[in-house]
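Lecture 7 notes. Example A: sequence first, then its structure tokens.
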Amino acid sequence: MKKPRRAVVVVCDSLAADLVRPDTAPALAALRAQSAHFASARSVFPSTTRTSSASMATGSPPSAHGLLGNTMVLHEDGQLVRLSVGKPGFLDRLRSVTGRTLRCPTWAERLAPYGGSIVMSNVSPGAAYLQDPDGFGHVYHRSGSRGPGGIALEDGLSIEVGAVGDAALTERFCREVLRDRAPALAVLWLSEPDHTAHHVALGSPEHLAMIAHADACVDQVRRTVDVLDPGGEEILLVACSDHGMETVGRQIDLDTLLVEAGWKSGLESSEVVVAPNGNAALLYFADSARADISALAKWLQDQDFSGRVVWGSQLADLGLPTGGPLGIALALRHDAVANSHGVTGCSVSVRSPFSDSSPPGCGQHGGLGASEQHPFLYLRGGGLPPGERSQPASLVDIAPTVLHHLGIAADGMHGRVLR
């Protein structure tokens, strides 16, 4: 009897496509040769893990699903409040304020009646839970694991972020999820090389060691899939990253700069609230300050730290909503300068009150730089012939492609099926 179709998705957080080479990631380079390789794959904006997770899970851009960055601003009790999306309780707070989490159904919700989903993730709690924010399947994370209905699971993950945790996660994923439980969708999200790259130079021995580690984890999954589906017809294997990284050239304190220029009355004032997202920032405006949007945008355009400044109807061009308190999207200035290890891409970064990682000289993401917007994307199995594809592709195309392989409708998703 023919086995039911399945999909396996492995994400190497922050691994840019250009760093997948035979000398840095031999298993991934070999897998690329066996796969449909989407060489033009792009991330979303902001190119942050939490936004990427929501976009991948819903097959839709931020303007549709509503999760606008690693940092977001909510309208609470008449005030604009800045929050970290990465905290374990963020989704509960989002639900209490807006009445919902994501504005689009996730693949976990769509697959609940059709074999279900299991996600094992070692990134931030917020990014992990965004794969299935409303408890339709299983999500395993070190901050707490949840089953259908959001019920806490006793067989959670006792691991730490980083390489050791990723290794333990991968072993359990292959043994328990792929071999024993066999859901329709299995997602493994590794913390490396992102976790290390925020603290070291891109291309440094420490960074390359974490790329090699992630490469070995992907290869363990690939070998397990080969045993379970030798013919490569039942299981669609998706190996990808959510975004890449750029070297931080310098950091700016955008709140302080706005106060000094007179756009904010004080650092804690809420007429204009900055949501820092690494190499990008989103600026939210109280109703009383919305008349200043155009003038502030033009001021930002004249600053030496600015790359692209977008406001008004043009926010839709970046996949962002044009209604609500969001007023300006700022992608920081970047260039193609190489660091001391020969890795190209350097960007200005915005200091965040929620993180002390990514000082100058280390890796960061969030903006529109060529490296951070260039994840890798390989699809193997499911009848897809191998070879490089030049067609445009994005993170939002992964979910509809997976659902198509599983024979499930992807109605309402903005992405398209990759072939």
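Example B, a different protein, same format:
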Amino acid sequence: MTETTNIRAYGTKAAEAPLNQMDIKRRKPTPHDVEIDILFCGVCHSDLHTARSEWGPSMYPCVPGHEIVGKVISVGEHVKKFKVGDVVGVGCMVDSCRACQYCEEDLEQFCESGMTGTYNAPDKHIPGAFTFGGYSESVVVHEHYVLRIPENMDLAAAAPLLCAGITTYSPLRHWQVGPGKKVGVVGIGGLGHMGIKIAKAMGAEVVAFTTSESKFAEAKRLGADEVVLSKDKAQMAAYSGKLHFILDAVSAQHDINAYLNLLRVDGSLALVGAPEHPLPVAAFSLIMGRKSFAGSMIGGIAETQEMLDFCGQHHIVADIEMIDIQKINEAYERLLNGDVKYRFVIDMASLKGQPML
């Protein structure tokens, strides 16, 4: 029987309930496990949707959080990659089968058996239980799914790289963005602001698209070479057939054909935002230029480490606003209103000072 211990966390017991402090059970480290004292945890839109059971039925109690940065406080006897004191990260998954074709290709996010999400997924180690995320004081993870954080990074601002960073890096790398490529980034939010920074560091010419003129200066500050007001038909028409690749980070309903029109022949648009309803695609938006409309999620563990190392080399982190865990419900409401530049990060010291329940 798996030994467990009680720790402090923040979560919710129902879709309509606010998040509050609770005690949860974590497994004690097994021979291949790394135990991590969580210092910072980013707040992702996925956290909000899962806590409120908006992406299919969630399991409760639900403790979100998959942008985790912390320090190793113990390791199992067979752990080779990490030692006590190492600064590490945990992203969107904490397990997979490790045997299927995709796991063997370092594409664990596409595991044929289904990856084990960092929260709200069946827990392989505790029968009948499910995983709890980073809104907690510590986490125990198999060493294969633990990532090394570069020494030069601000740790709080590095946390969102574990989701927002890899979600944008993976498609940019897959579609070979680099020098000589003209790349569009649609939406300047938690994902889009990372997309601009990373595409620019890869050497591309970056064009940012926004519905708000107030974000022009911000987009330039983030690294965009040009900024387009997407509501202005004349501005959009000026880029018709000009872009090699578009990273679409918008989760609201929008006209995808207007952006497909901006691709040159053999261009690709990859969707990383998750609109609630289908986006109608006109056949001729694709046929006339042999264009591709694709989607992308996170990357595998090796690619996520590659992303972290790349960001370390190019001094890239997220733009963040730090909050105490007690402000998480307020942060969720602000997130819904787009009132954050560009990612909330929880200082987990605010939880560790609280008494156990």
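Note on Example B: The CA atoms of residues 161 and 289 lie 34 Å apart. DSSP finds twelve helices and 17 strands in the chain.
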